[in-house]
Design a protein that fits this description.
Layout lengths: L1 H38 L4 H10 L1 H6 L38
Helix pairs in contact: 1-2
Length: 98
Amino acid sequence: MRVKDSRLAYRKQRHSESAERREDGKLFTERFVKASEQLGHGSARVRFDGVRSDPGAVTFDRAEHTGGEVDWGPFPPLPRAAPPQPARVPRPRWWTRR
């Protein structure tokens, strides 16, 4: 009876591990597809986010991956808006020194 129970427990464990691997595969595919779709987007900011998500990093999927392997050369820097200038308030006459 014990051999039968151990075989049953072994099969349950194998089944749960294979279900876990299938779920990981689905998650990998979903993340890779989303990152790849962003690379073909019309907006430069969305494409940049797609590069930052780094579809290659999805394959590694580990905490120590920092995205350092991305070659930023072909991606020009995005234009930034100038910071707003504070409104100029005229000083009262008594404020100025003579």
